[in-house]
Design a protein that fits this description.
Helices cover 39% and strands 17% of the residues. With 318 residues, the protein is an alpha/beta fold. The protein is globular, with a radius of gyration of 20 Å. The protein starts with a strand and ends with a helix.
Length: 318
């Protein structure tokens, strides 16, 4: 074990894969505000641990505050794995819970981000401590090939939109845009729709809200889809659903943000944040094939960034 990777509230797939790649043990504490139980368990874990290398999954500003304090007590090296929700705020609650803790990033030995645009949100002069690490989709590709052998149903064509039903996901626009398309193709929207229950009124014979699915069923759904849609209205966000499409070599349509264009140019189709553009792009998605050359270029860029992450863990553990 090269270290610990600590997460509160929700364990992201990205964190799970990155920890496996780096040979780190994941400590996940499912908790909600005010995170008292998670704080107590984190303190207990770090008091007993001999790990020299500790990574933390952000957002959860209080986790950064606690880790920064305990770093001074126990002397471990601290890496903040910063997801965009820590730096970009959709509402006042997110701002209050995260913005006051941003300055504590200075106490970390390194900061990891997952796309180059996020660097715009960090102070100048941090270049030597910030590392851009792309989501480890080659590891996901390898895992899926070794674990599953799906048989896709014949004659059933559908698109999938993986969703967390967060405020930045234009689920309603995507559904309305899809309903412009004629034919028997279906749209399946995964994730916990109860987070935005009013959207369930759009369910029909062609639009289905699947709810949260076990891994086997979720990845079978993606693997057998005609294409995958990943959407956000927020800049600086790298969508795991898009990387899952790359791992499964599926056609992909994503929102036309600066961040996603930098990440997936050549591989994905891009749509603007309006129903006409989304509808036209979905119709194209039903016809296109994967650009294998672009996919291999993504592999090279990703594996290069993951090698830098390995070097980082090695240097901090020494």
């Amino acid at each position: 074990m090269s270290g610990l990777f600590i997460a509160w509230r929700r364990l992201s797939r990205r964190t799970e894969l990155l920890a496996e790649l780096l040979g780190m043990k994941v400590a996940f504490f499912r908790d909600s505000l005010p995170y008292l139980r998670a704080m107590a368990r984190t303190a207990q874990l770090l008091r007993r641990s001999t790990a020299r290398n500790v990574w933390i999954q952000l957002p959860q500003g209080p986790l950064l505050a606690e880790a920064a304090i305990l770093k001074r007590v126990y002397g471990f090296r601290l890496v903040a794995d910063v997801h965009s929700g820590f730096l970009v705020h959709d509402d006042w609650k997110s701002f209050i819970l995260n913005a006051p803790f941003k300055k504590l990033l200075e106490r970390c030995d390194a900061v990891v981000v997952h796309n180059k645009q996020v660097l715009e949100l960090l102070p100048h002069g941090w270049e030597d401590r910030v590392l851009v690490v792309y989501d480890p989709w080659p590891l996901l590709e390898q895992r899926l090939r070794s674990r599953y052998a799906w048989k896709c149903p014949e004659g059933e064509e559908y698109l999938v939109m993986p969703a967390s039903f967060a405020p930045d996901e234009p689920v309603e626009q995507v559904v309305r845009a899809f309903n412009r398309i004629k034919g028997d193709t279906k749209l399946l929207i995964t994730g916990n729709w109860k987070r935005r229950p009013r959207l369930k009124r759009y369910e029909s014979s062609r639009v289905k809200f699947t709810g949260f699915l076990p891994d086997d069923e979720y990845y079978r759904l993606l693997a057998c889809a005609r294409g995958i849609i990943a959407a956000t209205t927020r800049e600086y966000t790298a969508l795991m659903a898009a990387w899952e499409a790359v791992a499964l070599a599926k056609p992909l349509a994503v929102s036309s943000t600066k961040t996603l264009r930098e990440l997936f140019s050549g591989y994905a189709l891009f749509f603007l944040n309006d129903e006409e553009s989304i509808s036209e792009t979905m119709e194209m998605l039903l016809r296109v094939r994967v650009n294998e050359a672009a996919r291999e270029e993504l592999r090279k860029r990703t594996e290069s960034s993951l090698e830098e992450a390995r070097k980082l863990t090695g240097s901090l553990a020494g």
